[in-house]
Every structure is written in structure tokens, then in C-alpha cells.
Design brief:
By secondary structure, the chain is α+β, with helices and mostly antiparallel strands. It contains 2 helices and 5 strands; from the N terminus they run H-E-E-E-E-H-E. The radius of gyration is 12 Å and the shape is globular.
């Protein structure tokens, strides 16, 4: 099992058991910057996963790639100890 498959598996497990997570996201394209933000996992798909930030006046949804977790552009606090 490669690193991306491990990340997918861990995110899918969180989605199924406890979808409320905390993330740090720093992406330039699209421009997304979230710092230790509580979000909800709302979808897990073969190449991407979706989160929803409900902290503002209206909910914001983002589609993120697993590879960005691997390259540390996305940090999921609940997975810090499990990732390579």
C-alpha cells in the first residue's frame, strides 16, 4: 500500500467514524488558507475529499486532493501521528 492509499484509508475512516476534524490548509491554487479550523468531512471520493467550514456566516465547501496531505499543504490534526 503506498502513501496516498494510506492517507485515503485514514481519511475515509475518519469520515465514517468522526467526520468533525481540525485542519490547516495552505494552498495557492485555489487560494485556501485555514488555520487550525474545525471542519466537517462531507465526502470521500477516489481522487479527492470534501470539507465544509461552518464557522462563518455561511458554510464554505472545499474540494481537496489527497496528494496535498502527503506534501503537507494540508494538515489534518487527527491524523498527525499516523502519516509518514
Amino acid at each position: 500500500m503506498n502513501s496516498i492509499d494510506i492517507i485515503k484509508s485514514k481519511i475515509k475512516s475518519l469520515y465514517e467514524t468522526n467526520p468533525s476534524i481540525h485542519v490547516n490548509v495552505s494552498l495557492n491554487t485555489p487560494k485556501i488558507s485555514l488555520k487550525n479550523k474545525p471542519v466537517l468531512l462531507i465526502g470521500v471520493y477516489p481522487h479527492v475529499f470534501r470539507i465544509e467550514d461552518r464557522s462563518g456566516e455561511r458554510a464554505e465547501q472545499y474540494t481537496l486532493q489527497y496528494v496535498d496531505v502527503l506534501t503537507r499543504n494540508i494538515e489534518i490534526m487527527e491524523l498527525k501521528e499516523y502519516l509518514p
